[in-house]
Design brief:
The complex is a heterodimer of chains A (about 300) and B (about 375). Chain A has about 300 residues and is mostly helical. Chain A has a single domain, classed as ABC transporter involved in vitamin B12 uptake, BtuC (Orthogonal Bundle). Helices cover about 75% and strands about 5% of the residues of chain A. In chain A, the strands form two sheets. Chain A has a two-stranded antiparallel sheet with strand order 1-4. In chain A, helix 3 crosses helix 8 and helix 5 crosses helix 6. Chain A is globular and about 60 Å long. The model of chain A has no long low-confidence stretch (mean pLDDT about 90). Chain B folds into two domains: about 180 residues, Response regulator (Rossmann fold, 3-Layer(aba) Sandwich), CATH 3.40.50.2300; about 130 residues, Response regulator (Rossmann fold). Helices cover about 45% and strands about 20% of the residues of chain B. Chain B is built from 13 helices and 14 strands. Chain B has a seven-stranded mixed β-sheet, sandwiched between helices. In chain B, strands 2-1-3-4-5 form a five-stranded parallel β-sheet, with helices on both faces. In chain B, helix 9 links the parallel strand 8 and strand 9. The termini of chain B are far apart. Classes of the chains: A mainly alpha (about 300), B alpha/beta (about 375). Chains A and B meet through helix 1, helix 9 and helix 10 of A and strand 7, helix 8, helix 9 and helix 10 of B.
Chain lengths: ~300, ~375
């Protein structure tokens, strides 16, 4: 392999990894947009989504098979179920706290994260669950570049979800309300917008996207466990910050950039892959120091 | 009146507390079992606990130890995590257990050595086998599994036998896998071969695509994964998914049947180094059927060693004739070829097993089979 082939391969791999980060980062950024909360339970919704998707797949694989069709149906089920879970979490844990100091609600989010994680630990006994599918290892070579069909379906699905979200936010009434709420809640209330319904919709969509990413990751990588949301939660948070937290296109861009950074970070000459995360999280620090609003974020007076 | 009631209550409590002391001689002998029963290595941990309790049941049915005292097991969940394991060890030490059997993840076992050492509790380490445990051992622990040194030697012989020239070694940065990776790297380059990549992955990471590319572009003929099965399964899957054609071998932390669950098809033809598992031990046939009957499952790779660990501890307590820590420790170190399931047990002056017990396995049809080149 020449350096050029290797470069292209990194690019493709970075895009695949980046689409997972982007899907999860969207939830972070949307929730932050409407209630200014860093929802640390978001990574665990991704994990919950993977488990619900796994359950859904075992339900539907009998008549739809465990190929992409079955996985899609399972993914939709997971998005629906985890979306509702997200709304319940918001109603039970965050809604009563909206008037409380910011730190209290942040700590509540950490508690929700621990509740989800430990519930999954108790239910699964801490074991890895094999996510069995009928996806083959097929793919094709473009020169020396290897693209697997799974990667293509994955990136395409993530792309469709993100375009759908963008259309929803920019074209629909609820989308417009969502943007308005993120700018000024009180003014929205005065204009007759049902702010609390908008917040619920935001949680539903954000959690649903995390569940979609979780199910796809389970199917693609082949195993799920209760702690799988931790690292990706941190990284999606990083992606959201790089892109500018609160900004939806920013989260997508940040996710892709982070995926590419990680992919190339492994190949920095003379230092090994053990430095990959050091590299990645250094970027987070640098962004926070030099451009705290992120690449696409707008400057705001009030920050966490 | 209130005071009087309190006095009656506490007097009753004291009675309850003193009561059993009169029967001290027939008290059970409490042994701690330190294995991970939650977390990523829970499969192995529960399996080891089962094997240990099977051994304890057999001894109890035969009349127990020291003239009729029954063995009672207390579990300490190490979770394969250094912090949790120290908590578990401190708990076992505060319960004043007579001895501890277990120790699976080397990284989580190492810090417990000091805890047990300070409390002078004899410790039979049944699975953990990093060489870093050797200098950390205050003298109260014995290791009945061959160490990383022996496994690196077995790996060297195997890869040379398969005519590998460029080897990629991947570990997970914990004491056990890093130790095995370093030892293999040193042995491999000393023998005049090339280590084409020496890499590391984060525990819990799912995407290894960048790493796989790096391995492929390094031109490696073989990949040696030195860490555990959960992430190993993912790595193997992604290596094959991305068209890596070379040989893949995994260390003894990965030779679980669960590797086939996670890696699927990709695990076919993968080689594993293993401490002799029950299937390959002639003496263990009865053990396999007992284990099956009781737990409705076949014993995993460390079950025979775990079983032997408890038997060895029991033998040492009987030989010492007392529950005194020092006496049991010196009895343990004087083991000279006592044999249960996994072959004779005797120790070097460094408290490690005096022989290598590694075999090479190959993945075939979703099972491990003994590989004879």
């Amino acid at each position: 392999m020449t350096w050029y082939d290797s470069f292209l391969q990194q690019l493709v791999d970075g895009l695949v990894l980046g689409s997972f980060y982007a899907l999860v980062a969207l939830g972070y950024t949307m929730v932050f947009g409407v209630i200014k909360l860093l929802n640390f339970a978001h990574g665990d919704l991704y994990m919950t989504g993977a488990f619900v998707g796994f359950g859904g797949l075992s339900l539907v694989s009998g008549f739809l098979g465990a190929g992409w069709l079955g996985i899609f149906v399972a993914m939709l089920l997971a998005m629906l179920a985890v979306g509702c879970l997200g709304v319940v979490i918001e109603r039970v844990a965050y809604h009563p706290m909206l008037g409380a100091p910011r730190l209290s609600i942040l700590i509540t989010a950490l508690a929700v994260s621990l509740v989800l994680q430990n519930a999954a630990l108790a239910l699964t006994g801490g074991q890895y669950t094999a996510f069995r599918t009928e996806l083959g290892f097929g793919g094709f070579n473009l020169g020396n570049l290897f693209l697997s069909y799974n990667q293509i379906v994955l990136v395409a699905t993530a792309g469709v979800l993100m375009i759908g979200l963008e259309l929803f936010v920019s074209k629909t009434l609820y989308g417009r309300a969502m943007r308005a709420v993120s700018i000024d809640k009180d003014m929205c209330r005065m204009m007759g917008i049902n702010v609390s319904a908008v917040i619920a919709v935001t949680f539903f969509i954000g959690s649903g996207l995390a569940a979609a990413a979780g199910t796809m990751a389970g199917a693609y990588y082949g195993s799920i466990w209760y702690f799988m949301g931790f690292l990706i939660g941190l990284k999606a948070f990083t992606a959201a910050v790089i892109g500018g937290i609160g900004s939806i296109p920013g989260a997508m861009l940040g996710g892709l950039i982070l995926g590419l950074l990680e992919s190339f970070g492994t190949h920095i000459p003379f230092i090994g892959s053990e430095w990959k995360d050091v590299f990645t999280f250094s970027i987070l620090i640098l962004v926070l120091v030099f451009k705290p609003t992120g690449l696409l974020g707008k400057s705001e007076v009030e920050r966490m | 009146m209130g005071n009087f009631l309190k006095w009656v209550a506490s007097a009753a409590l004291v009675n309850v507390a003193i009561g059993p002391l009169a029967l001290a001689q027939d008290d059970p002998i409490t042994l701690g079992v330190q294995v991970p029963t939650t977390g990523s290595e829970a499969t192995y941990g529960k399996d080891m606990f089962n094997a240990i309790s099977l051994a304890a049941d057999e001894i109890n049915a035969d009349g127990g130890l020291l003239g009729g005292r029954q063995i009672e097991l207390v579990s300490g969940d190490s979770a394969c995590d250094p912090q949790q394991s120290v908590n578990a060890a401190s708990r076992l030490a505060s319960l004043e257990v007579v001895g501890v059997v277990g120790g699976y993840c080397s990284g989580a076992t190492q810090p417990t050595l000091k805890v047990y050492g300070d409390a002078n509790i004899p410790f039979v380490i049944v699975a953990a086998n990093s060489t870093q445990l050797i200098p950390a051992n205050p003298g109260n622990a014995v290791m009945i599994n061959s160490t990383g040194n022996d496994q690196a030697k077995t790996a060297l012989d195997f890869f040379e036998g398969e005519e590998i020239e460029k080897l990629a070694i991947v570990n997970q940065g914990d004491a056990y896998s890093q130790d095995l990776a370093n030892l293999t790297r040193d042995a491999w380059s000393e023998a005049g071969h090339t280590v084409s990549a020496f890499e590391y992955v984060n525990k819990g990471e799912q995407d290894f695509s960048a790493l796989v590319n790096k391995i492929r572009s390094s031109g490696a003929d073989a990949v040696f994964w030195t860490a555990y099965y959960a992430d190993g399964g993912l790595l193997i899957r992604q290596l094959r998914q991305r068209g890596f054609q070379g040989l893949i071998a995994v260390g003894d932390g990965s030779n679980s049947p669960k590797l086939f669950d996670i890696a699927g098809q990709a695990a076919e033809g993968v080689f594993a180094f293993s401490n002799p598992t029950a299937d390959f031990l002639p003496a263990a046939q009865q053990f396999i059927s007992d284990y099956n009957a009781q737990f409705d499952n076949s014993p995993g790779p460390y079950a025979p060693l775990a079983y032997d660990g408890l038997q060895l501890m029991a033998w040492a307590i009987d030989k010492a004739g007392t529950t005194d820590g020092d006496a049991i420790i010196s009895a343990l170190n004087s083991a000279d070829g006592q044999e249960w399931l996994a072959g004779p047990v005797a120790f070097t002056p460094e408290h490690t097993l005096s022989r290598s017990n590694f075999v090479v396995l190959e993945g075939q049809d979703g099972n491990w089979t003994r590989y004879e080149p």
